[in-house]
Design a protein that fits this description.
Structural class: alpha/beta
Order of helices and strands: EEEHEEHEHEEHHEHHHHHH
Number of strands: 9
Shape: elongated
Low-confidence stretches: 294-304
Strand order of the largest sheet: 5-4-1-6-8-7-9
Distance between the termini: 70 Å
Mean pLDDT: 86
Number of helices: 11
């Protein structure tokens, strides 16, 4: 995996949101900034340019000079605190950015002769704040722009991207979706509740809230919950899945994510088998009550 640092731009006045703290606006129960930070959890160093606020994981804070000086000034401030060969640059208002897009950008930026890679939206527009850059040419071009214009304050990002040899990555309609208005926020909140997405979104939110780094086999746990509810009693479903998680945590204490996932699968398998045995016994008892033949294991024992 390519080693990288990340700079998240979390400043700006958010005028189209009425001056609201845009990075702190929640979508799916999580702040926009935290959603972006989750997508780049593999960064060696995470620098956030903007006002300090609580975040789901530790970051390094800085501010552009002057404050409100625009994206190039913010990028320059963040870049001074990075050391990796590659720098991921993101805005803080990308609710659907995921690790897959981050990996695609880093892979494209690492191709021979390229100085970086940026996303393009479905209309073909470049998104320089959903991008990965090689740090050396990025520093060079920022220095040249600052020399030519006297500073980076108030300058547009196109002055930078026009001078770099950048690959383009088509990451689908969601990766570059940003929230500039309250209508955008409403659309993002509605999208995560769509039938095909809501369960994955909820599981991701819970894992981030609880600090769990684990690939959960959702289908396995849902099957377990169904079998416990059907074979035992409806309240058994949530209680059983809780006990499976607790047992897996004990069995994999001190182990890595792969071992923990295997422990969950094994605990779920055993609990499912138990629930199916309960169901079988209940069915057998029902058959007996209806006048069916008793358990064959009792025959010939002399038991009355």
């Amino acid at each position: 995996m390519t080693a990288y640092d990340v700079i998240v731009l979390a400043g700006g006045a958010a005028k189209r949101l009425g001056g609201a703290d845009k990075p702190g606006v929640r979508v799916g129960g999580r702040a926009l900034l935290d959603r972006v930070l989750a997508a780049c959890a593999g960064a060696a160093r995470t620098v956030v340019v903007g006002g300090r606020r609580a975040t789901a994981r530790p970051v390094v804070w800085t501010r552009e000079v002057p404050e409100g000086g625009g994206p190039l000034a913010a990028l320059g401030a963040g870049l001074r605190l990075t050391t990796a060969e590659y720098v991921l640059v993101l805005s803080a208002d990308l609710p659907f950015l995921g690790p897959r897009t981050v990996d695609a950008l880093l892979a494209a930026a690492g191709r021979t002769g390229r100085e970086g890679a940026l996303c393009t939206d479905p209309d073909g527009r470049d998104q320089p704040l959903v991008a990965a850059y090689r740090a050396e040419p990025l520093r060079r071009e920022l220095a040249l722009i600052a020399t030519e214009h006297g500073s980076l304050a108030g300058l547009p990002l196109r002055l930078l991207t026009a001078e770099l040899d950048l690959a383009r990555v088509e990451a689908g309609p969601d990766a570059a979706f940003d929230c500039d208005t309250w209508d955008d926020i409403a659309a993002a909140r509605a999208r995560i509740r769509e039938h095909g997405a809501v369960l994955d979104e909820w599981m991701t939110s819970v894992k981030n809230e609880l600090g769990i780094d684990l690939d959960v086999d959702t289908g396995l746990l849902l099957d377990l919950a169904r079998d416990a509810a059907h074979g035992v009693a409806r309240p058994a479903a949530p209680l059983t899945t809780f006990l499976v998680g607790y047992a897996a945590a004990r069995a994999s204490a001190g182990a890595g994510p792969d071992e923990a996932a295997a422990a969950v699968a094994e605990a779920a398998r055993r609990a499912t088998a138990l629930a199916l045995r309960w169901e079988a016994e209940a069915s057998a008892a029902g058959d007996t009550a209806d006048g069916a033949k008793p358990d064959a294991g009792r025959e010939g024992t002399g038991t009355p």
